[in-house]
Amino acid sequence: MELTIEDTIKWMQLTNDKIQKNKEHLTALDQVIGDSDHGINMARGFQEVMKKLDAATYETVSDVMKDVAMTLMSKVGGAAGPLYGTAFLKLSMSLKDSQKVDESSFAKALEEAVQGIIMRGKANAGEKTMLDVWIPVQDYFSANNVKADELETIAKTAMEQTKELKATKGRASYFKDKSIGHIDPGSASSYYLFTSLAEVIE
Amino acid sequence: MELTIEDTIKWMQLTNDKIQKNKEHLTALDQVIGDSDHGINMARGFQEVMKKLDAATYETVSDVMKDVAMTLMSKVGGAAGPLYGTAFLKLSMSLKDSQKVDESSFAKALEEAVQGIIMRGKANAGEKTMLDVWIPVQDYFSANNVKADELETIAKTAMEQTKELKATKGRASYFKDKSIGHIDPGSASSYYLFTSLAEVIE
Amino acid sequence: MSKVGIVLISHSSKIAEGIYELIRQVIQDVPIELAGGTEDNEIGTSIDKIMKAIQKADQGQGVLLFYDIGSAKMNAEMAIEMTESIQAKLIESPLVEGAYMAAVESGMGKKLQDIYDSVKEEFHCENS
Amino acid sequence: MSKVGIVLISHSSKIAEGIYELIRQVIQDVPIELAGGTEDNEIGTSIDKIMKAIQKADQGQGVLLFYDIGSAKMNAEMAIEMTESIQAKLIESPLVEGAYMAAVESGMGKKLQDIYDSVKEEFHCENS
Ligand SMILES: Nc1ncnc2c1ncn2[C@@H]1O[C@H](COP(=O)(O)OP(=O)(O)O)[C@@H](O)[C@H]1O
Ligand SMILES: Nc1ncnc2c1ncn2[C@@H]1O[C@H](COP(=O)(O)OP(=O)(O)O)[C@@H](O)[C@H]1O
Ligand SMILES: [Mg+2]
Ligand SMILES: [Mg+2]
Ligand SMILES: [Mg+2]
Ligand SMILES: [Mg+2]
């Protein structure tokens, strides 16, 4: 795989499409174990991302991701804002010195993004958060020759497995045992992000 | 001393007069170490007390005090409301079976009123609250043949001595050492109450 | 199914309203009643408002009362004494944070004492 | 004399406004800035609002940040990182109760760390 500036913008475009289309679904997931705003938050954030990307021109993938980061941070609101914001900021920082973004530099960047999410949210694997999608995806990137269909499957399976987990971080943690049996909203939006990436590298 | 129904109403009337006249003074005291509302609170409460007493007729001193209690409780607001309310409720309850209110039954009632204030506010002597006036006055009633001028002096001195105390209960306690050097507002309103009583038993 | 009620006592009616909004975004079927400000909606608390709130919030499962600072506590205690027929319990916990947590737990059908214990356990506060 | 500033971060703009009222009744000369709600004043928090509040609340003595629940904390931490030139400290304490106490202490001219320590000492909370 190689990720160009155009690929990156396309990646965000596809993610935005999926999030806008599934806005109500994300909100419904957040309704059961949260405050019913994850769809609204993400839709608002990615709409602003697209506005921003459409209006600017870029020299590096890192710069695209920096704008994504800053926009998500200030527009998403809720927990997802600083978390996605931090993730993209770390991607951007890690890729700063890469002339071209290949699989190994992207894998490295993804690792730092995951560390960023952990640092920001103080959660870890198994706490029913977006990390339960980000971590398996990152593991896959670190260990493999990435294939689009495998990436898609890994992200999807990871998202679905959050159903069985009990939330111990974020709003859903207030629901304790009752949080079990429902997909984590942040994991669902993360799935849209990575399935869009799979489409791009296909 | 003997306290009739008329005396009791007169007592409240005189207290109300002094509180209305000194409303701004009480507020000024509460401004330095509190939230500037003690004058407003007490003036509102005693105005309502007078409305209530003027509109009703009474068979016992206890009944007068019960109405005073209920009115102060719901109209004063702030800390002073439940505290004065509890004090008058205890007076009323203690005097319930007294055919006439003489010095010893009043002394006994005052003791219960002080206990009520302590129970309600969990403060004790020396914490720069109204108790620092109520307790010396109650001690004087328990130990002596009450004389109006002595009562007045004791209440006044007690109020003035709150200046040197450091507040450890109520709003003023937030000011810690800076609460020293100012008269406690609730002690000032309590002084008006007891100097009015002195006038009545003169 | 009837739920444990929540009463929000604050010196400011805006604080109580804000907490109400915050909770309602997440939990719709728990009775929440406000006792913010004095009778004239000035800064302060009112025994009458608290008593009414207790009565309205009770669905037979009892009521938990949250308060902000100092004198609100005394007014709350008096109001509880004066509505003795209702099982009402005052709790010392952070107002916003504790009430939010209690509302979620009540929404799950928990009992008064269990909610009380959960909140107390979550916020090991000496004072509040 | 310049005073330590207070920033009130809440998911609800009403909660922040109510606390402001409560404090202003007692303390007038301490900078207090509000960061309640999202940019559209919906329930939520906004990094931009928090950053602006930090900047406005600083008189050179630094700023203490109070927040209500969960995700407000992450936004607050990011905002602090992004305004690094200002000494800003996030505190885990009950929002209403802690902010009230801090404002009184700031009004008495106390320094940032001393106020922080006082509030932490008053509210020995595990969590908040
Ligand atoms: N501490 C955390 N660490 C990692 N992810 C978290 C954390 N808290 C929440 N999340 C993620 O954020 C999602 C909720 O986002 P959103 O609804 O936008 O925010 P909020 O919960 O503030 O309303 C959750 O589903 C979860 O995936
Ligand atoms: N816990 C307490 N015990 C006894 N008296 C108290 C207590 N707290 C406050 N007071 C008295 O109440 C007075 C303040 O009354 P007020 O200003 O009406 O109430 P608030 O402090 O709620 O604004 C104080 O000056 C003090 O005398
Ligand atoms: Mg949400
Ligand atoms: Mg939210
Ligand atoms: Mg006052
Ligand atoms: Mg007051």
Write up what this structure looks like.
The complex is a heterotetramer, with two copies of chain A (202 residues) and two copies of chain C (128 residues). Chain A has a two-stranded antiparallel ribbon with strand order 1-2. Chain A contains nine helices and two strands; from the N terminus they run βαααααβαααα. The N and C termini of chain A lie close together (9 Å). Chain A has 202 residues and is mainly alpha-helical. Chain A has one domain: DhaL domain (Serine Threonine Protein Phosphatase 5, Tetratricopeptide repeat), CATH 1.25.40.340. Chain C is an alpha/beta fold and 128 residues long. Chain C has a single domain, classed as Phosphotransferase system, mannose-type IIA component (Rossmann fold, 3-Layer(aba) Sandwich). Chain C has a four-stranded parallel sheet with strand order 2-1-3-4, with helices on both faces. In chain C, helix 3 links the parallel strand 3 and strand 4. The longest helix of chain C has 13 residues. The N and C termini of chain C lie far apart (32 Å). The interface between C and D is medium-sized, with 30 and 30 residues. The structure holds adenosine-5'-diphosphate (2 copies) and magnesium ion (4 copies). One adenosine-5'-diphosphate binds next to helix 3, helix 5, helix 6 and helix 9 of chain B.
